[in-house]
Amino acid sequence: MEQTVGLYIHIPFCRSKCDYCDFYSLAGAGDQMDAYGRALLRQMDAMPTDLPADTVYVGGGTPSWYGPDRLCALLEGVFQRYRVTAEAEITVEANPDSVTAAGLRQLRRAGFNRLSLGMQSARDDELRSVGRPHDAAAVVRAVEAAREAGFDNLSLDLIYGLPGQDLARWRESVEAAAALAPEHLSCYGLQAEPGTPLYERRAALPDDDVQADLYLWAVRRLEQAGYRQYEISNFARPGRESRHNLRYWRGQPYLGFGPGAHSDFGGRRFSLPRDLEGYLRDAERGTFTLDEDEAVEAPERRREYLMLRLRLREGVERNEYETAFGMPFDPLEACFAAWRRQGLAAEENGRWHLTPEGFLLSNRLIGEILEE
Ligand code: SF4
What we know:
alpha/beta, TIM Barrel, Arc Repressor Mutant, subunit A, three-stranded antiparallel β-sheet, 43% helix, binds iron/sulfur cluster
């Protein structure tokens, strides 16, 4: 069977920068948006096309700020260049302040069938504290408009560990998100990344113990509400896991478009510089500068397999590992068995995975298992 590919398209534009944001995105670069759409299509023409694609993900940045007309034209350009399968998952990210009912209907009609909405919190004071450009009421309006537009696959993003957040406040956000009945939820722990305003002003964030309590509480509550944790930070109703993100975690091929986007294709890994101006210049010339471009050899694939699969509830399995890497699974199984005694790992149908408590220590545990 012909192998399918996933397509990631990066939209590096935002209305304003959130205080914690470390993604490659620019505020106030609206005059570049039209040229950017043309540049993306030129990058597609400079890369392999005519491939069967079963996931398309337009992320950012804030795709909804880029606007429905440009997004629809972009998707049309994708349809002209790739064989997007009939059942493909086609996601667009949006912020609640930059969607309209008409715009969402337009996106749905054009073929987008999954909407990922940046909710982050149900409390206005928390949203303000990190410079989010919307309030909680806008989230509710956006969800209603998305449903009316026909989006039946909706994801909400939440952040835990916001400044001053305790369990009672976090519960408000989780309960509010669950009440909106999305098919999928992502919960990310806030990190103050160097160079961000949040880091520079040394904002007081909940300590690691509090963050761990918030995380574990959310895992239990969401499982109770019918969302299965299928990845460290991701929860879904059965069958509503993000198929595009699963590609990354399972080491399946994908192509990335736009500054900062990564690709893993044809045994090579490459990315483009985080530089919009340079990208637009490259598009004029028709050749694109790559930041890194390397063949991925077996030891690196093994490292990645372990790092990425241990983020997933589906975990790792003896035959799969031994066949892929020609190495014995026994030393790994010894690690898992020791972790199981500490409540950090579990075995289900022959597959070993970390428990939520194990996910909290995943960096350390993955480091340990990579030594084996
Ligand atoms: S909307 Fe998203 S990408 Fe844009 S600044 Fe905020 S966190 Fe970053």
